[in-house]
Amino acid sequence: MLKENLLQIYAESFRENWREPALTDYVGRNTMTYGDFARHIAMLHLLYKGVGLKKGDKVALLGKNTIQWVTVYMATITYGAVIVPVLQDFNYLDAIHIINHSESRMLFVSNSIWEHLELEKMPGLTAAISLDTRELLGENKSSGRAVEKILGSLPLLFRKRYPNGFRSEDIDYPVCPASSLAEINYTSGTTGFSKGVMLTLNNLCGNVVFGLHQKLHYKGSRALSFLPLAHAYGCAFDLLTPLAAGSHITLLGKLPTPKLLLKALSEVRPHLVLCVPMILEKIYKKQLQPILQKDSMKMMMKTPLLRKVVFKKIRDKLVEAFGGEFEQVIAGGAPLNHEVEEFLHKIGFPLTVGYGMTECGPLISYTHWRKFIVGSSGQTLPGIMESKIESSDPERIPGEICVRGENVMQGYYKNAEATAAVLDADGWLHTGDMGTRSKDGTIFIKGRYKTMILSSTGQNIYPEEIEAKLNNMPYVAESLVVERGRGLTALVYPDYEAMDRDKLSTADVDSIMGKNLVELNKQVAAYERVDKIQLVPNEFEKTPKKSIKRFLYY
Predict the structure, then answer these.
(1) CA neighbor of 133 nearest in space, from 158, 156, 119, 114
(2) In the chain, which end has fewer C-beta atoms inside a 10 angstrom radius, N or C?
(3) Shortest CA distance to 58 belongs to which of 96, 97, 107, 92?
(4) Which of the pair, 505 or 345, is modelled with greater confidence?
């Protein structure tokens, strides 16, 4: 266990940064200082106490990234209760299942989502409260209207509890054991069902302490939160770490369309940018590739001096597009296309790629961009995590990546069988990812164990590596490589937007994909060659994290 106590880290941060800005809603521009934030947390603590919420009870949270969302999250864990963040992209039946399965007693939910839910289908809930207005949306009849009464008298109770006003010295969070359950985060995995990942205070603290030691955020730094906070990646490094550091977080609170995101980045000018690979891949494919493929540009790239000038100009434009004041961009949540990664590092763009999973809250490995090895997923967190590869030659022959340490979950909530399948008796978490590892703990991921295909000649084929090459080819929006008979087939959803832009008809698709197939098979090993490309009429069905539900297409 770590010596640091997560709740006391926040108590100290809120006191020290009392007058500093903590949170801003990008929509509406409402800003809350750390002092205001601590007062709102204290108000919710009184509500929890008034309705009889006990330490260890579950509170479900369902809505977009807002100050209210953050307040409920932090108030719940600093009370000693367990937060259950639900991705707002889950369908409503899944959301109801998660609320019931987690045994949540209270629900904080956006009004627009509540319209699709029914209290009667969530019998374990005492009450549902609006994230938008803090009004009571529904209350279980057996509660005797206790929640309604407490909500109505909360301002008066608060004044009685703090007659001199709530001050920094009034912050008093419980000293809970580090092993206490803090969060149940339901995965949105690609295997067809979700599991409740049990994260302790120590698990969350491992991520926060590492982030603080690495100075990912620091007192007065600016953060733009546009990844979903209900997901472990955004939560750990766009919320938990900056609040511990005394940073100022701006919550986008809307779908990060390219236009809106670029506008927000230019206005907030964050000191750290967290993003998913899809954002970088779209910029590369939609904006950079068309420029680089022009004949005039190809000629310039042949001259070292001119190539250097071109690379600097592209880098400077990209840096300014991301706000211009960030130390680095950290890509995570999914593998980054190798071609995109190599190009960005070639032009000197400050990019690094981390590796993690919800089961580790999420971080497993990371390296600062200046020391980052292209093609890797960073170094196993020193002092926090350890890793090993189940292989006879871990540096050369891929095997399953196993990790253990401060960040590894307790297990899956009410699912001993699933827990036993991934957590062994020695505490090693079997990630399901295949890769290699250098002696210094740097991890190189090849693909998922479950997606690996064994060729007829006994070679291991990682479809994700083939897909990464195919996705960079003309008019390919996304692809999925699957085994059909004794060969490989690439399912492709064409980039119809690009085809419309270039005035191409659907009749041109077969010819284009035929050329893509020839080019693809030049770039892969003989045993990885694809037999044919099969077009699909619609985008692949995805999880709320935007990962393809591969199991639907096998």
Answers:
(1) 114
(2) C
(3) 107
(4) 345
